[in-house]
Amino acid sequence: MQKIFIGLFLLLLIFPLCFFNKEEISKRENRTLARFPSLIEEGGFNHKFGKEFEEWFADHFFKREQIIALHARIRHKINGRIENDKAFVGDNGWIFEKKGIIDVAPLSQQKGEIEYTAYILKRFDDKFKDKGIPVYLVLLPDRNKVYKEYWERYYTPKPTLDYDDEIKKALSDHDNIKIVSVENDFIRSPDKDLYFYKDDVHMTFEEGRFKIQEKVYNELLKSELKELTVFPERKENVYRINRSTFLSALLGKEGYVDKDVTYVDYQFPNKERYKESEQKSFTRQTNDEWGHITEVVYRKGFVTHPAPINKSFFSLGPCYAEDIFNLFKAVFKESAYIRINLGDNFGQDAKNHQINEIRKLFTLEPNSAVIIVTQDYFEYIEQALEE
Amino acid sequence: MLFSSLTFLFFFLPMTIIVYYTETRRIIRNMFLLFASVLFYAWGDIRYLPILFSTVFISYIGAIFIERSNHKQSTAAVFILLDLSMLFYFKYAGFFLENIGLLFHREWSLKLVLPLGISFYTFQALSYLIDVCRGGVKAQHNFFNLSLYICFFPQLIAGPIVKYHDIADQIDDRKETTDAFYYGFRRFIIGLAKKVLIANASGEIADKIFALPIAEFDAPIAWLGAMAYTFQIYYDFSGYSDMAIGLGALFGFRIPENFNYPYISKSISEFWRRWHISLGTWFKEYLFYPVSVSLMNSRAYRLIKKHFGKKTAGVFLSIVALTIVWGATGLWHGAAWTFIVWGLYNGFFILFELLTGWGKTKKSKLLSAIQHLYAVFVFVISFVIFRSESCNHALHYIQNMFGLIKEHTVYLKLPYYLNHYNILIFTLAFLFSFPIFKDILNVKNKYYQTIINIFIMIAFSLSVFELTANTFNPFIYFRF
To answer: Which of A262, B6, B93, B96 lies 20 to 30 Å from B333, alpha-carbon distance?
Structure first.
């Protein structure tokens, strides 16, 4: 009896080693698995060898992916799922929008749409050109390209037109508009820095977002921005951010308690400092039905958002766009910003408000910059230009 | 490396067992165990290794000097101070500097990374030096044997603190039997399950609640957080001790018990006889008794005895000795005021029990139940102090537990934390706190043994399942 037990247990300890996962990529998680660490580094002995070995060992453990999936299923069976018709709270405390990426329709960017966008942008830019105010158009990555690279099963055939190229071409005669494209960087960035998409719409909080902010920051520094004053890095700089929009859109405005977020010492691209500032942030949002979501927002700081359906480009999410804006605010003394992705969730009043906000930009003084972080709703800009 | 990590379970442990048992010579086996222990320790960060071996070296040289010296006590004091100075420097220097700075309105700080397990192995080394000084054991002239005593990986990082006289003979003369091996495996799995299935799940709830701003949770949630942490710390640490004892048995060592169902205690004195037993006995043997003896020989004691009587002098002695011992116990756990307050808080209740005789009466079941409730209440509150970030936080948390903080904005209600899985875990945690399954491993009936083994294998599979899928796997006592 004793010997059988000992033998069985020893076998159990050795068995997983014989069936180690040799894959380098986890398709389910869309990420590269940890690589076997090197004992010697450039600077000498790799002090983190043990930790990295454990990461490698855990990543390649026998049937890891299946175990994780089964674990999640069992937990859901036991606990049920916190959900309403629009969203649910994941096992890890994140909130996921239900329609998710499964609703993504094949891309259908038309030449005419691009021409229309470029036309609007040029007209828009004319309002600033004479004052020497540069306009920056931040092109967010094409989701479909990201899928092709990392999540093939959600990849749909490439559209005939590449929006990045086409919009650049269409705006080439209008050099006041600076284009900041992060797509290539996004796709090619090192594994650990990549956004990745789990089964739900989900981006990595730590690395991915930072990476793209860093890229935008670097792009801007490369650009001709000498006329703009870099914001002094002082602790007393406080930026107030309202992050209500997405959650309100997702969960309904009724019953919401919504407070501003205060970021202290918002400095990029210093990652450590960024984390610090994140820890100091507070977002409190709640309603009776969805009180538990508060925790997600509070803890994680932001919620992700899927692409607008039937559009070739996707917004990385209002909260994410907020971050980009805050980056600009952190870097430049004065800036203006257009973010038009509230769309249909808010009705005509919100649209009018948005249009009025755009109109305010026309009164900007020199030594400012206008940054557009949207590929949708250019009709709002058009309406703003009408008067 | 954590015992409850996949690397340890499926790489380090099987490799160590296989290599160890392919060799039959004791000396080679010991050398290999030492090698494995060094690897185990260096795994986290090799830079800590010289600190560990400095302690070993000081103790090795020290004991030989003490043995040969005509002034054993003063020689021992020198080497004890040397060992303690390293502990002080790495663990307490920053804390003291910071607090001295506060007295002078200056911001002084010294940020040092705490070497893993320094409190544990320093205390083992001290035990050795004191035992040699007292003449209870002979100095170990084999450096590798002494290294193995201090560095033996099952108890190196988080105890139990093995006193030298308890294990000295086993280093050279022990028997690895099938019985012990069988017991070791089963004990290890029980510890693993306690840690992974109960402590980690409780810890997740405790961490969430303790991280909330005080105004964002109310009394029921505060109690839930306190209870969750009470379960976490017990199953975390006792699970680790079970694993250590089990691992020791795999290699023929008998490591002393560290826990004996502390949550059934009826007094805090009893609680401390059942909780972290190795630390309690260490302090009793090496601090409380010597302090008490020297106090009895002190002038102050004699004066009090002369003027106020023997009883008052005894109270004086108890107050001073307990304050020293419990202050030191608190400080041993960490360089922070919360730990000192926690230690003194325990000392206060032990003194109270000593003076009133509380907890000793067994006359009625009702009184027994009241005593039990008292003990639970006191140690749950003590763990809130232990867990809190600062004394201020602890105070507010405790106020919150008793509804003394009125203005709340509770975003997350109690049911959020108490999902079905967590209720299941709490139920198990509660049940296993009682000795209902005590001696389960010693049942002789083969039929029951088979059933127990099936449960143990299920517990192991579930633990591995949980470890693979869940990344939350902290270990509280690693930071000591």
So the answer is: B6
